[in-house]
Structure formats: structure tokens, C-alpha cells
Amino acid sequence: MLDAFFQYELLRNTFYTGLLVGLIAPLLGAFIVVRRQSMIADGLSHVTLAGLAFGLFMQKKYTLLMFAPFHTGILFSIIGALIIENLRDVYKAFQEIAIPIILSVGVGLSIVFIALADGINTDIYTYLFGSIAAISSSDLRLIIFISLLVIIFIFVCYKDLFALSFDSEFAIVSGVKSKTLNFVFILMTALVISASIRIVGVLLVSALMTLPVATGMRIAKSFKQTIFYSIIYGEIAVIVGLITGYYFEIPPGGTIVITSALLLGLTLLFNKLKAVRSLKKDDGYAA
């Protein structure tokens, strides 16, 4: 079934990108979920959409090819991440308000730039829902670079990130540079979201960062196990989603998210049946 993905360069690029995204999205997603910042992916994804629309607008209206939508999307996502961090400092007692603010601005800018770029077209459609053949060789190289940055960041800063995610006050007292770490973390999140949009689309990117984590949490016995299982579920969802999307000729974003949701549902059902079986066994011993 994977033969088709290795016959054509664009499909190969998509498959390799999917594997990378299936790794880094749940990897960062595990920390995002623990920090109770699951909505941050939605906020940054809409800002990224504004950047993509801006790039398309500049290309179509002014024929400025240096404004590649993928690159302007990354730039807008990084700017959005920086604004979120600044707003969190301004609203210290209500830090969660930073996300709906940036999400609203992102939606507004997206509407404006999409309208200026002649409205909804095939390019915008692929960014909204993902595409099976939208990854060029240069895009793949950039996504590989982003993946390496994320993996190195998590590997080097794992202990500090773990402490800051579970007990920020203790971490700060222990000498963790929380402001710097949070700043780099949200930048990494922005980069991962930008990279993931090519596969799953703006409207569904947050699902790839949360659903595999939600599934992994139900069977893991430690945080490291949660990360491990989240990545496994993420990779399964991406591979199955890409294959089904290709053969049914539908955007891969939907099939990836549906696969993730099915994996979560099956895991919850398995745990429920396991709990019922255990309860019946205990009742049998009691009898």
C-alpha cells in the first residue's frame, strides 16, 4: 500500500514529512497538555493561516515570489508566539486570555488577506485541510531542520521542562530560567504548528498535538511513557491517514484526525472493558 508513496517525489516528501510531524507534534503536545495550554495550537494555527494568506496575496497581487506562503506562515506563527508571551506577562493573573486574543487577530487577518488574494481557492483549501502532494524538496528540508531543533531542545531541556510543566513554582525556586524556557518552548511550538499545517491543515493541527497525547495518557504509567505512546499513536494516525486520504482522494487532515479519534475511542473502550473485567473478577473472589 505504501508503494505509491515511493514512486513520486511529491508523495515521498509528503510521507517523510508526515513521519516527522507524527513525531514532533505529540512530542511537544505532551508538554502542552500537561501545562493546560491545549488551545495554544488553535491560536497559533490561525495566525499561521494569516501568514499563508499574506504570502499568497503578495505573490498574486505583486508577483513577489520571495514571499512563499509556507515561509510567511512560519514568520507569522513566530510573531504570534512572541505576542502571546508578551500578553501573558501583561495579564499575569489572566494569562489564558492571551490565546483568544491572538486567535481572534489571526482570524481577522486571515479573512482580510484571503479576500485580498481573490478569496478561497485551491491553495487556501490545501492549507485549511492539508494536502497529499504539497511538500516540495525545499519544504521537506526546512521541516527536517525544524524537527531537529525540536528534538535537540527537548533532549537538552527535558528536566527543566518537566519541572516547569508540573510545578512551576518549585522549578523557579530551584533555579530554572522559566522566562527563557517558556520563550523558547512557545517558539518551538510555533515552528511545529507551521510544519504540521502542510499535512493536517490549519483547522485540524491542534488535534494532532492533543489526541495522540490524550490516548497515550490512558495507558502510560509515567510521563516518559506518555511521550512514547503519544508518538506511536501519532505515527499510526499519520500513516493510516495519509494512505486512506490518498486512496479515497480526500484531504489527509481529516483522515489523520479521524484515525486519531478512533484510536482514542478504542483505547477508552479497552480500558473500560478491562475495568469491568477486573471488577467482575474481584466480585468473584468476594463471593
TrEMBL record:
SUPFAM superfamilies: ABC transporter involved in vitamin B12 uptake, BtuC (SSF81345). The chain crosses the membrane at residues 15-33, 64-85, 97-120, 140-158, 227-248, 254-271. It is found in: Cell membrane; Membrane. Pfam families: ABC-3. InterPro entries: ABC_BtuC-like, ABC_TroCD. It comes from the Bacteria. GO terms for cellular component: ATP-binding cassette (ABC) transporter complex. The keyword Transmembrane helix applies. One of its GO terms (biological process) is transmembrane transport. Its main location: membrane. The keyword Magnesium does not apply. It is a multi-pass membrane protein. Keywords: Membrane, Transmembrane, Transmembrane helix, Transport. Belongs to the ABC-3 integral membrane protein family. This is Zinc transport system permease protein. It comes from Piscibacillus halophilus.
